[in-house]
Amino acid sequence: MNILLVNNLGTILYTIFFGKEVGIDSLGNRYYISKKKIKKKWVVYNKIKDPTAIPVKWQLWLTSEDVNVFDKDQKYIWEKDRKQNLTGTNQAYHPVRKISESKKSVQKKNKYWTPN
């Protein structure tokens, strides 16, 4: 039932009738290809419909034709997990110190004319 709340009904029905499941990522998102057209790929989100939350290897699979995510399941030492786009949330990055410093410097430089 959670899948119906996140994804629209048309996507769910199309997936039931024309989709073949390819895999599931660590977040529980399910990836499908069309039974008739192999090049048609899509994702059914588990909890939040956020494309920035898709793991990198699955994003490559969705956007390119020749990538097989099942060949390598190896993660390199230098590789980091993908982070969601936090713009518009309470956890978004705000350079508070930089903004306040720039306002102070602007206020110091301005001289206002006052009539005698």
Multimeric organization: single chain
Gyration radius, in Å: 23 Å
Strand content: 5-15%
Biggest sheet, strands in spatial order? Answer: 1-2-3
- pLDDT averaged over residues: 78
The chain-level structural class is alpha+beta
Low-confidence stretches: none
- What is the total tally of β strands? 3
Major beta sheet summary? 3 strands, antiparallel
Number of helices: 4
- The dominant shape is elongated
First-to-last CA distance: 74 Å
Q: What does the model show?
A:
The chain has 116 residues and is α+β, with helices and mostly antiparallel strands. The protein has a domain at 1-70. It has four helices and three strands; from the N terminus they run ααβββαα. It has helices at 2-6, 9-18, 56-63, 96-109; strands at 19-24, 30-34, 41-44. A three-stranded antiparallel β-sheet has the order 1-2-3, with helices on one face. The longest helix has 14 residues, at 96-109. The model has no long low-confidence stretch (mean pLDDT 78).
